[in-house]
Design a protein that fits this description.
Layout: H1 4-10, H2 25-36, E1 48-52, H3 55-69, E2 79-86, H4 92-109, E3 113-117, H5 120-123, H6 127-135, E4 142-151
Helix pairs in contact: 1-4, 2-4
Length: 172
């Protein structure tokens, strides 16, 4: 059997249809803690994690996203993890991306489904988005690099690891 960490990486897939079951606080804390242990440039730890689980706030995010992009971007998930850092820092994208990857792998290891959502930075630059960003306690100057939605698949049989392209790796 393969190493459990490698297995969690190789079997992670994006879920785009969630049921109503909430991720337990125990599992959520483990997932967020894994994000906290991601590598960071010069170990400055500039990335921040804001987790949204309150039904009213999730619904407000869902409405704002639908208004801005014309579609449901949260796929029914009831947990949204926003990862952000200083907009003007050269390491923000890399550091926050590492946090997100740790979150995705940890979630999969705990049998929690996830999906990366990219629309939040653009949303939080709109007037209504800026107000929501402030309500969530996210500094105005922070860039939202991405979000991880977490939950449980409505139909787990639809979660299939897709084949990767053959020439992805080159060793010289």
């Amino acid at each position: 059997m393969a190493n459990k960490a490698i297995q969690a990486i190789l079997t992670r897939v994006s879920c785009r249809e969630y049921n109503e079951k909430k991720v337990s606080l125990g599992k959520l804390n483990q997932i967020l803690e894994a994000g906290k242990y991601a590598p960071s440039g010069k170990f400055r730890q500039i990335a921040n994690i804001t987790c949204v689980r309150t039904k009213a706030k999730i619904e407000r995010l869902r409405e704002l996203l639908k208004e801005q992009f014309g579609r449901e971007c949260l796929y029914g998930a009831n947990t949204v993890v926003l990862v952000h850092g200083p907009r003007d820092d050269a390491f923000t994208v890399q550091d926050c991306s590492c946090v997100l990857e740790n979150i995705f792998v940890a979630a999969n290891a705990l049998k929690v489904q996830s999906c990366w959502i990219n629309q939040f930075d653009e949303l939080f630059l709109t007037p209504k988005g800026m107000k929501m960003k402030e309500r969530l306690g996210i500094p105005a100057e922070n860039r939202l690099v991405g979000a991880a939605i977490l939950g449980y698949a409505k139909d787990p049989s639809k979660l299939v690891v897709k084949e990767r392209k053959a020439d992805f790796i080159s060793i010289k």
